[in-house]
Amino acid sequence: MTASRPLVLLPGLSDAPAAWQQVTTAARNSFSVLTPDLPWPVPGKQTRSEKPMSLPDGAAAVLDSLDRAGIAATNVCGAGLGAMVALQLAADHPDRVEGLALITRQVPLSGLLMSLPAVVSRLLPATAVQRLGAGQDQLLALLDQVRPVDATPLARRVNTPALVLCGARDPINRRASESLAKSLPSGGMHLLPQAGPSWLDDHPQLLVEALRTFLAAPE
C-alpha cells in the first residue's frame, strides 16, 4: 500500500460495475483503495452463493482484507447493502474505521420485498432481486438473513464521523438519507447539487470529489 489514506469501497448489489470502476480509478489519485470481495453474489457474475448473506459475514470479509493488507484503520464508503456492511464494521470494530461515507438505495418495491423492514428496503434495491442468480427459495433465505437488521440501533452504535450522500434531485432517497444521517451520533448529510437518483452511475466523479472533501484527502 502507498502512504496515502486508505479507502475501502463497498458497492451495492445492483450498482453498475463500470461506474464503481471509474470511482476506484479516480480515487486512487488520493487514496490507497481496497475493494474487498464480499461473501455474496456479485452483479454481472452468474454465481450462486452457498451461504445466505449476513452483515457480520460481510464485515468479517472486510476486516480480513484489511488485516491481509496490513491496514490498521481505514475510511469506508458503502452504497446500498455495502453501506449496511460499513455500518456493521464501524459498530463492531470502531478502532478500524476512521470515517464513513454512506449512500442509500430506494426504489418502488416488488411484492417480494414488501416484507422487509423499511430501512432494509431503502438500502437494498428491488432490482437486486433479479441479479442475485438464485432461485426463489434461495432468494427468500438470503433476504431472511437481512430481515432482522434494523439500521437505526446499528447506526446509533457508530460514533465514527459519517457523511450520508444524496442527490439534490433524488426525492426517493432523500428521506431515507435524512433518516440515516439523524440516526448517526456523528453523522451529517450532503446533498449533491443537480444530482438525480442515478447520480452515481451517471456521474461517478461526484462521489470521488465528495470523498476528497469529507476525508480531507490531497488532490
Brief overview:
With 219 residues, this protein is of the alpha/beta class. It is 40% helix and 16% strand. α3 links the parallel β3 and β4.
Description of the molecule:
The chain is of the alpha/beta class and 219 residues long. The protein has a single domain (5-214), classed as Alpha/Beta hydrolase fold, catalytic domain (Rossmann fold), CATH 3.40.50.1820. 40% of the residues lie in helices and 16% in strands. Helix 1 (17-27) crosses helix 9 and helix 2 (55-69) packs across helix 3. The longest helix has 15 residues, at 55-69. Residues 43-49 and 107-149 have low confidence and may be disordered.
List the helices and strands and how they pair.
Blueprint: E1 5-10, H1 17-27, E2 31-34, H2 55-69, E3 74-79, H3 81-92, E4 97-103, H4 118-123, H5 136-146, H6 151-156, E5 162-167, H7 171-183, E6 187-192, H8 199-202, H9 205-214
Parallel strand pairs: 1-2, 1-3, 3-4, 4-5, 5-6
Helix pairs in contact: 1-9, 2-3
